[in-house]
Every structure is written in structure tokens, then in C-alpha cells.
Amino acid sequence: MQVLMAAFLVWSLMSPQGRGTEAWPTHTACRDGSLQVLYQSCDALQDFGFSVDQCPKQLKPNLNIRFGIILREDIEELFLDVALFSKGLSILNFSYPICEADLPKFSFCGRRKGEQIYYAGPINNPGFEIPEGEYQVLLELYTQDRSTVACANATLLCS
Amino acid sequence: MAPRVGCFLLAVLISASCKVITSSNPMCTEKEANKTYNCENLDLREIPDTLPNTTEFLEFGFNFLPTIQNITFSRLINLIFLDLTRCQINWVREDTFQNHHQLNTIVLTGNPLIFMAETSLTGPKLLKHLFLTQTGISNLEFIPVHNLENLESLHLGSNHISSINLPENFPTQNLKVLDFQNNAIHYISSKDINGLEQATNLSLNFNGNDIKGIEPGAFNSKIFQSLKFGGSLNLSVILKGLQNSTIQSLWLGTFEDTDDQDLTSATFEGLCDMAVESINLQKHHFDGFSPSTFRCFTRLQELDLTAAHLKGLPSGIEGMNSLKKLVLNANSFDQLCQINAASFPSLTDLYVKGNMKKLDLGARCLEKLENLQKLDLSHSDIEASDCCNLQLKNLPHLQYLNLSYNEPLGLEDQAFKECPRLELLDLAFTHLLVKAAQSPFQNLHLLRVLNLSHCLLDTSNRHLLEGLLDLRHLNVQGNHFQDGSISKTNLLQTVSSLEILILSSCDLLSIDQQAFHGLGNMSHLDLSHNSLTGDSMDAFSPLKGLYLNLAANNIRIIPPHLLPALSQQSTINLSHNPLDCTCSNIHFITWYKENLHKLEGSEETVCANPPPLRGVKLSDVKLSCGLTGTGIFFLVVFVFLVIILLIFSVKFLLRWKYQHI
User: pTM for this one?
Assistant: First the structure.
């Protein structure tokens, strides 16, 4: 009995140490017949929630998304970096300002570190058709001093 | 019995060893010795013993403190700034900050507060900033009013507040910022605003509250520094409600994700009955323009129409004579003349940044803006083959011009003759086409700052910078020099008043010994991210007291005769160079250790050679080269012994020989 107790004690004391080293689970952002978008948070500190309302192969402009996260930084200034890869080759890189001091595009701009935000609304994207294949997308949201707000490793499967 | 004791001992031992682990485990980071610490995301349940009593600024967010009380921070009585963001605080007990007389800022953002005791904030003598953002507050009575007399900013965003009516005894005399972002405030009454009577120069933020009504006369003869009603659906309700108020800055913009109504002339009627200096209407749609749209804008000094879907501004707007600053960023003009600048004769600042279409500068579009001092035309896809005298006709007072991030510009000789008072000119990331031997900046005698980074300059044109008599700051980052070398005669020799010179990322391989001759005023020289070697150090010998950045070059060995050129500078950065840590570089390594106080980035200044020392900080390298004192001693002893041995053997040999004769 005591041995069991001691073992339990050891286990309960040791287990919190291992936390945080594991990767965050992979989530499905959308799944629609021929297109599937999976993502995984690459921020060591936290996971986040994301989904796209509809994701047909022919992406419509101004998609609606849902996004929930706890802010680790003030987001008066917020930028998005996107890097798209296919078969290990880089296809596209771009950087886009989401919140700027002189142009807060979205209503959540200016919210503070520690706030939980939930955004359900349009993202002002252009419409385009996704060619068949598998793509890796690295998305990063960061502030003016390059602190990470969110980071995602996404996979697009289009058949 | 014995196994029981054994198990108990085992358990005790393990728990003891774990304690040791947790206390030496994730540590707070020291940002400023004995003063500033960051302990975020460490799963701490108390203030760690490792924090010194002298701590003044403490970031303690994302830990676990369900209850905070007077013993929680009792040791850190010098605290000035305390950030407790998202620590799962439920209870703030009596006298928590009783002994923290210097505490000036408390951040409680994102904590599920259940109750704050009456005396929970008493103690600090000058509590100025209190953040109660997203703490679940629905009633302002929740905030304990004792000791808030000195409060300058109160942040109450993202709560469940529906009325801004402050409790009667709430002190507001020093309040400057009151933030009600993202709450559920739909109505503002006279009583609400009267509660803020004592505050002067107050800034109120109602962004993200859908204000549906304001009691008539609520803002009567009230004065505000700034009012924000961002994302409100009905602007005319707000403008009518602000009747007879005086407001420095009024923010009425909307957002991508907010539905909005088209703005008409009727929307702005209320503006006639109030005094506003500056107004922001970003991202709105205008329902066409009639002559009366801007009827009530006549007293405005600043108008911001960023991303307002504009293709032009109507001609013949009357009465906007007092407008000083106009922001038209992120709109869709085809030609600069479409802004009909003549309507704003007093304009000093004009921003047309980030135009969504290719912007044609046209000719003489701004010629009526004689008072213009600041013009920003960056990121607007501007392309011009012969710039800029016709385009910038008659801007005699222009001091600041930003044409960065545009398409190629062909600069003529004396390209800025029309704006002779320019003090700052930014052309970064705009490809400049200058014909050989021409001097586009000629006559800019007052220009102090010139940014030519990544302009694909023809640096072999020695007349390029001619005429810049007062230039202090020159950035030529990312341009290329012939053969990767700055020669004895170069384009810098005409700008002798230079104080700051940036030549980073220019693919430089070498710099001539006399390249910087005549630049005696220089105090800051950035040569980072090139391929320079130690041999280029000679170029600094005419310069003294420089901040010299040589990071990320190809410096391996610095010969001893070049060290004096480094010694006379005030700060040097040699990080990210493939430095040699063998005896062939011993003089430099010795010099480096003696001059550590002058060196910047010493953490990243590491050896590349020999392989065993790769990655070792230069300041930690210990080399023994040549003969040391003990070495010499042993050598002398050895030689002495050899001589004695030799004498004896000769003696012995001779004796042996004579004996056998």
C-alpha cells in the first residue's frame, strides 16, 4: 500500500514538470469536401482556437472566421506574416498590417495584454482558387517589438 | 515496520528534492539589476525568494494567485509597478498593499475578481494607474473608492458595464483617462457626465460600445481632451448628443468588422453646435458629396479620412480655411489633383500614404498649399520619369517629404528646387534613376536628414550628394559600390557636415584608407552586415569618438598597427564576425579585454577559429603565446645544465685521451 502511495506521490510530483514540452494538438479549421485545413499552435505558451465558416476549393472573398485567444501582449500594433510552402519549397511570403496606430483596421485593435478575445467576422481576403495539392502555411501574429501573439503551423489539403 | 519507514523516507526525500527543483527552477528574468524583474508564465504561487527586496518594477502576469492579501507582497515594499495580469485572482483582501507607499500602477487585467475589500487598495501614497480590464465588473460600485484620489487613469474595458455613472463619492479630480472600451454602454445621461465634473482635460474611450442615445444637453459646456466612439453605428446621435461641448480630438472611425451606415450631410449637422479641433472618420463610407457635406467642418483643424473609400474630394468645398492637417491615407485616388487641395489653403500637413491605386502626381496639384510643411506620399505606387519640380510646384515651406516605398522615380538635376526649405527627405526603397554626373539634391541647403536606403543608387556618381551643405544624417543602407569598395574619391566627400552615416548591407569588401577624409564631424558610423576585413580599420584613423558598428562583417584578424584607430573610438560593436582566437591575433584579443567598457554586443562577439574555441566569447578567451616567465626560467636552467654537462664531458674526454697516450 505504502509503495503504491509513494509511487503515486512520485508520479504526481513529477508530472507537472513534463507539461509544456508536448506540442499542442492539431485542430481542424475547416473541412469541406475537397478542402481540409488543419492547424497547430507553434507558440510554446498557449493554444488558440480558429475556424473558417466555409472553405470551398474556390475561396470566396471576405471570408468569415472565428478566432479565440488570450493576448500575451498589447495589440495596438499587430502584424501578420504568412509563408506558404509546397513540397518543401517556398511559394509565397508576405507581411500584412492588421492594427496600426494610425489605422486600426479591426475592432479588436488596441486591446490589452491578458484580455481574452473572440473575433467572429470578415477578414477582407481576396477570392482565389486553390490548386490541388498539399500546402504548408506558417502564420505568425506579432507586435511592433516582434513579440509573438499567435503562431500557427497549418496544412492545406486540397484534392 | 521497516519497509514503511523506508517508504516514508523515500517520499520525504523525493518531496525534498522536488522542492529544491522548484525553487531553482524557472527563474524570473532580471531586466535591470535589483529593480526590474519579469516573472511571467512561471506557474508561480507566491513571490519567489530569489526576488530582492529592492524590486521596483515587477511583471508577474500569467501565474497563479487565487487570493492576494497583505502577506502576498509584504516583502517587496519598494514596488512602483505591479503587473498581475491573468493570475486567476478571485479575492483582493483587506490591506493587500498597506505597506507599498510608492506603488503607482496596479494591473489586474483578466482576473476573475469576485470581491475587492474596502481597504484593498489603500496604502500607496500616489496610486495613479489602475487596470481593471476584463475583470467581470458589471457595477462600478465594485471598485473600492478609498485611496483613488490621485488616480490619473482608470481602465475598465471589456467588462459588463452598462452605465458610466460613477458612485457619488468617487474621486475624479486628477483623472485624465477613463477607458470604457468594449462594454455594454448604450445610453449616456446628464447625470453620468455630471459625475465627471471635477475632472479636467479628460479622455474618455467608448470604442466598441453601441451608443444608441445621449440625453440632450448631457455634454453642455463640457470640455474634453479626447472622446472616442469607435465602431458606433449611428454617428448623428452622437454628434447631436455632444451639443455645446468643447473637444480637442473626436474619434468616430469604424472598423472592417463593424456594419456602418453611409454618412450624409445630415449626419454631421450636430457638428455645427460644438467646438472640435480634430476629427477621425476612418473606414466610413460617404453617400456621395453635396456642397453641404462639409458645411459644419469649418472650425476643424485636423481631419482624418483614412480608408474612407474616397476616389476624390469634391471641388469647391467652402469654409475649410482653418484646416491644418488632412489625412487621406489608404484611399483610391487616381491622380493627386483629385483631392482638390485648393479647398484647404491653410494646410500644413498632408498625408496620402498607402493609396490603393497607382497614384499619378500630375502637375501643380498642390500649388495652392503654400503653407505646407509636411507631405507624406509613401507606399502609393507613385511612378514618375522626371521628378519632382512640376509635381511639387510652389511648396516653399515644405520641411518634410516622404516618398519612400514607391515605384521608380527619375530625378532631374535640382529635382527639389520647388521646396528649398526641406529638412528631411525620405526616399527609402524607391528606385532612383539619376543621370550620370547630375546632382538631384543640389540647393537643399537646409536638408539635415536624407534616407536613401535600398534606392539602387549609382554610387559612382560623385556629384550625387552635391549641394547638401547642412546634411547631418545620411542613410545609404542596401546600396552597392563599384567592386564592393569605397574608394579614395567617393560621393561622401561633398557632405562634410555629416554626423550619422549608415552604410550597412552594402556588400562592402574594403574601404580606402582615406575614404572618410573630411568627415570630421562624424559621431555614428554603421558598417554592419558587409564583408569588411580587419584591413579596412585604417579608414577610421581620421575619426575620433565614434559609435562604430562593425557587426556581421568578415573580420578575422586585426593587425596590431590598426588597433590605435579602434582605440580612439567611443563605442564599437564587433559581434557576429568570424574572429580568430589564435596567437596570430593575440594583440587584438588583449586589446579587446582591456577595452571591454567600449564594446557593444560582447555576448555575441565570439571566436570562429580555432575549432575548439568556436562559439566562445572573446572576453572569456585565455591565450598564452610566446614565452612566459616560468618558461624562460626553465629554459635558462636547461641551457645551464647542458653547458655544465658539456664542460664535464670535454674534461672527461680530454683526461681519457691523455691517459691513453
Answer: 0.87
Residue where the block lists cell 495584454: A113
Q: Is B307 on the interface with A (CB under 8 A)?
A: yes
* Per-residue burial over B30-66, b = 16 or more CB atoms within 10 Å of its CB, e = otherwise: eeeeeebbbbbbbebeebbeebeeebbbbbbbbbebe
A9–B14: do the CB atoms touch at under 8 Å? yes
Range with the poorest average pLDDT among A59-63, A84-88, B145-149: A59-63
Min Cα separation A132/chain B (Å)? 31
Q: Give the residue from A21, A63, A105 with the most B CB atoms within 10 Å of its CB, the best one to mutate.
A: A105
In the block, residue with C-alpha cell 493587500: B96
Residue B429: per-residue pLDDT: 98
Q: Which helix (H) or strand (E) holds B23?
A: helix B2-24
8 A C-beta contact, residue B337 and residue B311: no
Nearest to B543 by CA among B527, B532, B559: B527
pLDDT tens for each residue of B476-494: 999 999 999 999 999 999 9
Cα angle B611, B614, B620 (rounded to 5 degrees) comes to 125
B157–A115 C-beta distance less than 8 A: yes
Domains and CATH numbers, chain A: 29-158 (2.60.40.770)
- For every residue of B212-262, DSSP letters joined together read -EE-TTTTTT-EEEEEE-TT-S-HHHHHHHTTT-EEEEEE----TTS--PP
- How far, in Å, CA of B29 to CA of B44, rounded? 14
Of A3, A102, A107, the CB nearest to B257: A107
CA dihedral B166, B168, B172, B178 (to 10 degrees): 0
Asked if A113 and B15 come within 8 Å (Cβ–Cβ), the reply is no
Per-residue pLDDT reduced to its tens digit, B422-455? 999 999 999 999 998 999 999 899 999 999 999 9
Assess B605–A contact: CB distance below 8 Å, yes or no: no
Read off the pLDDT of residues B39-78 as tens digits, 9 standing for 90 and up.
999 999 999 999 999 999 999 999 999 999 999 999 999 9
- Name every residue whose Cβ is closer than 8 Å to that of residue B642 and which is 6 or more positions away in sequence: none
| Cβ–Cβ under 8 Å, residues A48 and A150 | yes
Provide the ipTM: 0.85
Interface of B with A in 146-165 (CB under 8 A): 155, 157-158
Mean pLDDT of chain B: 91
Residue B77 DSSP symbol: T
pLDDT at B558: 92
Q: In whole angstroms, what is the distance from residue B196 CA to residue B171 CA? A: 9
B330 in contact with A at a CB cutoff of 8 Å?
yes
Q: By the 8 A CB rule, do B260 and B287 touch? A: no
